[in-house]
Amino acid sequence: MLKNYLKIAWAVLLRRKFFTFISLFGISFTLMVLMVVTSLFDHVFGPQMPERETDRLLFVNNLREEQGEGYSSSGPPSYYFLNRYVRRMQTPEKVSVHSVFTQVNSYIHNKKLALDIKHTDQQFWEILDFHFLEGNPFGAQEVKNASRVAVINQTTRKNYFGAGPALGQTIEVDQVKYRVIGVVEDVPVLRIQSYADVWVPITLKSQEFKDTGLRGGYFATIKARQASDIPKIKEEYAHIIRQVSQLDPKEKKQVHSYPDTIVESFARSFLGSGKEDKVGFLYTMLALAAFLFMLLPTINLVNINISRIMERSSEIGVRKAFGASSNTIIGQFVVENVFLTLLGGVLGFLLSAGVLALINDSGIIVYSQLGLNLRVFAWGLLLCLVFGLISGVYPAFKMSRLHAVEALRGGSK
Amino acid sequence: MIQLVDIEKVYRTKTIETVALSRVNLFVERGEFVSVMGPSGCGKSTLLNIMGLLDDPSSGHVAIYGQPVKTHSDKQLARLRNEKIGFVFQSYHLIHDLSVVDNVELPLLYRNVSAGERRKRALAALEKVGLSARTKHFPSQLSGGQRQRVAIARALAGNPEIILADEPTGNLDSVMGDEIMDILLRLNQEEGTTIVMVTHDEHMALKTNRLIRFFDGQQVADSMVVEAQI
């Protein structure tokens, strides 16, 4: 039966070329935009290098202090807070403390190079899955000794050393010389927790360690032993925050900070009040935006479908006469529409691959590697099906109600 | 086999009421070849549509094998049409986008029949109507007579016990019309298929067993053909 449906769907597509073009253009363009957005979403929130095990990773990148009379301030936590309280947590497998990346200047062959530098501990390399193209990360000894060593990304390597050797060579960043000990693949700027051009030992910033304030310019990355430990880690962290809030009862200070997954962190920063992560709200907003974006082409496709199916009223009459129930007719037209949508989806997929390649080449998003992986494909497929069902069900339902005799009368010879 | 009891069909619009059928009582026996005649607009096609469960009467009831179908759901009616009834229309109503053999397979699509079995039965039906050489053709590549033969093959494919034919020779010349009539007669005589045929053609009607005449929605005559000829 399915083969018969597909056969007729294909024949109808070929017979009405203009309708087919309009339908496919609308579907493929809509799905292209949605797939590009999905790819971007996956790029920002999905398990990507070096944050592959996202289900086991939590990030601390904000701390808010609330004092009386509604005064509050927030920003990245201090090294003191993270080192003293977070690093000592019992539940996680590992905790890394690292600085927020900062832009510094470097000069090479009399040319200024703006580089983003990040100071990290050795756990940073153990928790995250950087892809080393050359050499190795710095270890505990180099961190302890505050060695002037650096791991650089491949673009910095290219800018500095071209095709020549990089390991053991020196780079000068912000008037400090570092010996290159490793080269990693570029990390996209959207991965703010791990992104940088140059990574150096955190102890080179030890002058900041003495500041006992709670806020500073540091992040923590926490790795759970297993995904199921995440709630326990959050619980332990909440306990720490309660303790920190009560350190000086006279101050009546409230401290808020949360270890978040990537999505939670984003939702809390942009949508939440700080106390709630608002992930549900984020997903609802995204689903609503996708729905509204699809609404117009869907209405358009519904209209095209109705006129396309109207032309086939004779066929509906014949099918009913020979035993098709109204539900069978609905099934047939929905299958046909899903087939058309999947066809548009394939075109949309190809178009989005082109657009993503353009975005990657344009450098709009630094070091972006937007691509169409299996996850994006699965989402694209789901969107195609939703789009196909939404735009197919109503016309099919409307036409299935057509009385067999009426349908036969309206048919052509 | 098919029983119509006190059937009335009235079409109503805001301003006008048209009586298409009035108090029709009819019983078609198994194996009969019944022709229905009458002037245009007298209700012949409406009668056939009601018999074929494609249309509901305004009042009265239809029974197939003694079972009233008034309370049947859409699905039950579809099943009954699929298993018991085959239709042949004046304007063929073939699906243009499907090949001859795919058109003939249509009734079997709505049964639990494997693709191989469907194809086998469709080819057998096409052979019965002498169209084995045209299975891969599309309706637009066939003459009117050939299209009607495809339509008959489609009606036969499901092996129905009743064939309802609405002016099956109406769009054909006399030679082709005779060919189609021969096929229907053979089906009735050799396979015992019950046939009800609406026709304008007295010559065709006289080849059947029983002739029913309609006028202004009323059944005005019902006689065996031999008697009618006398």
From TrEMBL, chain A:
It is a multi-pass membrane protein. GO terms for molecular function: transmembrane transporter activity. The keyword Magnesium does not apply. The chain crosses the membrane at residues 21-41, 281-302, 338-359, 379-397. Residues 20-236 form the MacB-like periplasmic core domain. Keywords: Cell membrane, Membrane, Transmembrane, Transmembrane helix. Its main location: membrane. Signal peptide: none annotated. It holds the Pfam family MacB_PCD. Residues 288-402 form the ABC3 transporter permease C-terminal domain. The keyword Magnesium does not apply. It is found in: Cell membrane. One of its GO terms (cellular component) is plasma membrane. This is Putative ABC transport system permease protein. It comes from Rufibacter quisquiliarum.
